[in-house]
TrEMBL record:
PROSITE patterns reported in the protein's UniProt record: POTRA (PS51779)
Pfam families: FtsQ_DivIB_C (PF03799), POTRA_1 (PF08478)
Family assignment from sequence similarity: Belongs to the FtsQ/DivIB family. DivIB subfamily.
Function: Cell division protein that may be involved in stabilizing or promoting the assembly of the division complex.
Species of provenance: Alkalihalobacillus alcalophilus ATCC 27647 = CGMCC 1.3604
UniProt-recorded name of the protein: Cell division protein DivIB
Any one GO BP annotation for this protein: FtsZ-dependent cytokinesis
Residues covered by the POTRA domain: 50-118
Amino acid sequence: MGNDKLVTLDDRVPSLKEQRKQKANRRLLFFLLLFFLLLLLIVYMQSPLSHIRSIEVNGQYIASEEAIIEASGMNLGDHIWNINADEIQQLIERLPEVQKATVERQFPTTVLVEVEEYPRVAYLLKEDRLFPIMANGLFLTELGRHDFPSDAPIIIGLEEGELLTEFAAELALLPEQISERISQIFHDATESDPYAITLLMTDGIEVRSTVPNFAEWMAPYPSIAQEIDRTLNGVLHMKMSPYFEQFDFEEDAEVESEG
């Protein structure tokens, strides 16, 4: 019985040696692969393959692509893995038109910049020229002579300054269903109310309100406008307590004839 055990052990020795040899070969192969991967990584990092070959900018409308790339500080040929995305985003967001920016690497050599600009809330009519106004109150370069805006109302009689900035912020708070119904806005300042404004709506209604709390005062406009008889002449006052003021032209005509 003892001889049988010795023979069995001797038979197993070649098998154990083969297993050890296979493990050693696998270990060697692993280190060789790791070595070549590291070598390829070093070659990639040191070669033009890891340099920026294109910078793509999406989402911009007012700010030019060139201005955004210049603000980012990136250049073609820079090492793509040396850029700091958070820092570049902050640099781009310093542009007055840009509200938010994101920067992503796209393997192997492209950097993608996504831009979200402040919306245009109005156009200021000044000396027969139209100047776009952003939601942050930024006053932009005038539109081309043949460009006529249709995406935001035109402001008339309001000068650039704190009041315009405040009004731009109020306009930015308006729901789109209301802002798109405003055609023109006139600044009708008086001694008693330096913030008074008059709005001409696309539905034909004339509205009078004020700059402070403008977005809040205008919030119920859609429902109130539905109740107004369009055959009547008058003005809709949109303040804390909205009401419609009807004009009686017949009485005015009689007074003028008597005079």
